[in-house]
Amino acid sequence: MRLFLLSFIYLLGLTALQAATLAEYTFEDPAQDEDFREIIEEMRCLVCQNESLAGSNAELAIDLRNEIYDMMKGGQSKGEIIDFMVARYGDFVLYSPPVKPSTYPIWFGPLIVFLIGGVVLFRIIKRKNQSRETELSEAEQQKLEKLLNQSNEQRDTNQ
Amino acid sequence: MNRYLRYSVPLIVFGIIAVFLYKGLGMNPREIPSPLIGKSIPEFSLPSVESAQTMINDQNLKGKIYLLNVWATWCVSCRAEHDTLVHLARSGKVEIVGLNWKDERVKAQAWLQQLGDPYTVNIFDKKGRTAIDLGVYGAPETFLVDGDGIIHYKHAGPLTLGVFNETLLPMINDLKAKGS
């Protein structure tokens, strides 16, 4: 338990540390500040591929953050900075890739799988319903009539 | 639906997934397609590793086919790759230009003295700004550049003789045949 608490405190310290490293990027214009934070959140660090530029402490991520910061300070727009990054590192640098033929499978693949699943499910349900309505065989039909007649007779006698 | 066909559906689905997973095993997530292929190397003007007074720019490198090798003394894979580079440079099959990335000049010079110097030109990119323009995200990385400064191929990770002979050498021969 103590170990757990200690490691928890340690982790808290780490997040504080990270927040501190990002605090050095300041802008006078709050809109610019927001843009900057959005850009570095949306960009992948190419060294630690599961981290964003905002979250990574890899040297390259720090360099790229500084570069983006300088560009924003130099008055470049969000679109210009994204173009700059894509021109160098490709679409891979974006967490959300643009919709184009080479990325169709990523964008529409899940929908297609979902539709196939839907069709399969629909067919199974339809077949289940049909099997419930299947016709009785000759022998079963006779048995059923017999039972029905029986109950009718019973009802008659009860009256 | 045929009874056998129905039972073979899971098998087919499994087969498709297995093929994708098997292909995935052989793929290298570090290999990111470079958008710079077919484009010019970026403009730059940087000192050489040998001397802070000697400046090199992108125009100086025109007129020859060469490999642009991004390296650093802090990069372990570069050490592993170095002997291959020295071997290639001695073979005379291609020239190698170095881009020393975010390194210290003294360390870089000592490394070349100890391990041999395969580079005809060695660019000193202390800040890593030109490396960003080249889309470098790790070392070592090797670009194949033609006489007009156009990038034709990028290899991420240590260069091996296998990669050189199978991929780069045919491209170099093609470029030479085209007379660029």
Task: Enumerate the strands of the largest sheet of chain B in spatial order, edge to edge or round the barrel.
Answer: 5-4-3-6-7
Mean pLDDT of chain B: 92
CATH-assigned homologous superfamily of chain B:
Glutaredoxin
Examine the secondary-structure arrangement and name the CATH architecture of chain B.
Answer: 3-Layer(aba) Sandwich
For the sheet with most strands of chain A, the description reads: none
Mean pLDDT of chain A: 83
CATH architecture level-2 label of the largest domain in chain A:
Orthogonal Bundle
Regions with little confidence, pLDDT below 50 for 5+ residues of chain B: none
Number of strands of chain B: 7
Number of domains of chain A: 2
CATH-defined fold name of chain B: Glutaredoxin
Helix and strand sequence of chain A: HHHHHH
Task: State the CATH class of the largest domain in chain A.
Answer: Mainly Alpha
CATH first level of chain B: which class? Alpha Beta
How helical, in percent, are the residues of chain A?
over 70%
Q: What is the rounded distance between the termini of chain A?
A: 78 Å
- Name the overall outline of chain B: elongated
Q: What attributes does this structure have?
A:
heterodimer; A: 159 residues; mainly alpha; Helicase, Ruva Protein, domain 3; 2 domains; 6 helices; 0% strand; B: 180 residues; alpha/beta; Glutaredoxin; 5-stranded mixed sheet; two-stranded antiparallel ribbon; 5 helices
Would you write up a description of this structure?
The complex is a heterodimer of chains A (159) and B (180). Chain A is 70% helix and 0% strand. Chain A has 159 residues and is mostly helical. Chain A has 2 domains: 14-98, Helicase, Ruva Protein, domain 3 (Orthogonal Bundle), CATH 1.10.8.640; 103-158, no CATH class. Chain A starts with a helix and ends with a helix. The model of chain A has no long low-confidence stretch (mean pLDDT 83). Chain B is an alpha/beta fold and 180 residues long. Chain B has a single domain, classed as Glutaredoxin (3-Layer(aba) Sandwich), CATH 3.40.30. In chain B, 41% of the residues lie in helices and 19% in strands. Chain B contains 5 helices and 7 strands, in the order H-E-E-E-H-E-H-E-H-E-E-H. Chain B has helices at residues 3-25, 76-91, 105-115, 129-133, 161-178; strands spanning 45-47, 55-57, 66-71, 95-101, 121-125, 141-145, 151-156. In chain B, the strands form 2 sheets. Chain B has a 5-stranded mixed β-sheet. In chain B, helix 2 (76-91) links the parallel strand 3 and strand 4. The longest helix of chain B has 23 residues, at 3-25. The radius of gyration of chain B is 21 Å and the shape is elongated. The N and C termini of chain B lie far apart (62 Å). The model of chain B has no long low-confidence stretch (mean pLDDT 92). The A-B interface holds A 46-47, 49, 59-60, 63-64, 67, 86-92 and B 29, 32-36, 102, 127-129, 132-135, 137-138.
